[in-house]
Amino acid sequence: MASVPAGHVYVRHLSPLGGAAPGAHSVTRLADPDPDDWAQAAQGRWWPPAMLEPAWVRTHARARGVDVVHLHFGFDSRTPAQLASWVDEVHAAGAALVFTVHDLRNPHHPDRARHDAQLDVLVPAADALVTLTPGAAAEIRRRWGRAASVVPHPHVVPLADIERAAQARARRRTGQFRVGVHVKSVRANSDPLTVLPVLAEVLAELPGAVLQVDAHRDSGLDEQLAGLARLRHVDLRVHDWFDDDAFHSYLHSLDVSVLPYRFGTHSGWLEACRDVGTTVVAPTCGYYAEQGPVLDFRLDEAGFDPESLARALVTAYDERPRWGASAAERRVQRAEVAAAHDRVYAAALDAARAAR
Questions:
Q1: Is the full-model pTM beyond 0.70?
Q2: Matching CATH topology for 2-153+332-351 and 159-324?
Q3: Which residue, among 99, 2, 69, 82, has the nearest Cα to 42 in the 3D structure?
Q4: Contact 260, 195 (CB under 8 A)
Q5: Where are the alpha helices (DSSP H) in the chain?
Q6: What is each CA distance from 209 to 70, 165, 260, 340, in whole angstroms?
Q7: CATH numeric code, 159-324
Q8: Residues 248/157, Cβ–Cβ less than 8 Å
Q9: Residue 26 pLDDT grade (very low, low, confident, very high; cuts 50, 70, 90)
Q10: Of the candidates 187, 137, 177, 148, which has an alpha carbon nearest to the alpha carbon of residue 257?
């Protein structure tokens, strides 16, 4: 199997722990090729994905015995014509195409037209479709008349770290209530400057509450955040990108993580929060609330309701929900996710054989 990409944490966690389950088909995922030398396996960098090159499919797919190509991420920069050419090569190589629709609205694109055009190529052409939530599956059926298997997002944080995070949170007695917003490098769907004044105002009235605002050095928001930083209950931190361990530790240090998104579909950030026991306050756009328990507030391209955000914060403060997914639950889920993908691949191969 060629997964595009293979090295992403989501894709790595589609495999069962300890190998294939009894009676399951054996799934072997090829390593990502080095973008600069297709003969070598990638060493940490899979972008841009070599497997999305028609020439890679022509020269490697049949030779490597690839019977399924599973597309996840990495096609943002491809034109619809380029994707159509790639799809043709996949089918010409005799492989089935599986496409997981992670994003129905690309969070990196300010306008939806390009991503819609890409989906108009990929969704009809796939031999099988997967998505993460029932709402996304219903939208896929509504827009393209295709059925998509709904398979939930697996864990993001390593299982051993999930266990350690749960133990540490149970022992934590800080007296603080720490709410975090990470403005990152301000991708297209993120609107932190809209929600931050409301967060600062509400948390100022809650004893022990702290608003932690993290920003990358290249966020360009120094001036806008300077005023907030002068407030006694605001903790502004400007730094370089977190590696995975630092990211997981950051999320674990929070009681609440607020997602300031005006549009989007699903969120790996939300899943990482569930892994470490951090409550998520999520916008009503997309299908975040279908991934797992969240406190929601109205934020989308049509508008923002500050009162709904205030209510969500006060509820989180008063009730201190514990909605994290335990390591045991994630182990069971991972086995179920692997088995579901095994069924999808078998169905895709049957569909591909019938069609061709």
A1: yes
A2: yes
A3: 2
A4: yes
A5: 9-12, 54-56, 80-92, 113-125, 134-144, 159-171, 192-203, 222-229, 244-252, 268-276, 288-291, 306-319, 327-355
A6: 45, 21, 19, 42
A7: 3.40.50.2000
A8: yes
A9: confident
A10: 177
> Phi then psi for 222, rounded to 5 degrees?
-55, -50
CATH architecture designation of domain 2-153+332-351: 3-Layer(aba) Sandwich (3.40)
Rounded Cα distance, 149 and 340, in Å: 8
Is 107 a residue whose pLDDT tops 60? yes
* Residue bearing the bigger pLDDT, 13 or 171: 13
Task: Report pLDDT digits (tens) over 310-348.
Answer: 999 999 999 999 999 999 999 999 999 999 999 999 999
Per the CB < 8 A criterion, the answer to whether 141 and 147 are in contact is yes
Percent of the chain with pLDDT over 90: 89
**pLDDT value for 215:** 93
User: Token pair for residue 51?
Assistant: 């497997």
**Residue 71: band (very low, low, confident or very high) from pLDDT cuts 50, 70, 90:** very high
351 closest CA partner among 124, 145, 101, 96: 96
Nearest 5°: the CA angle 342, 17, 327 is 115
Answer yes or no: are the C-beta atoms of 132 and 291 closer than 8 Å: yes
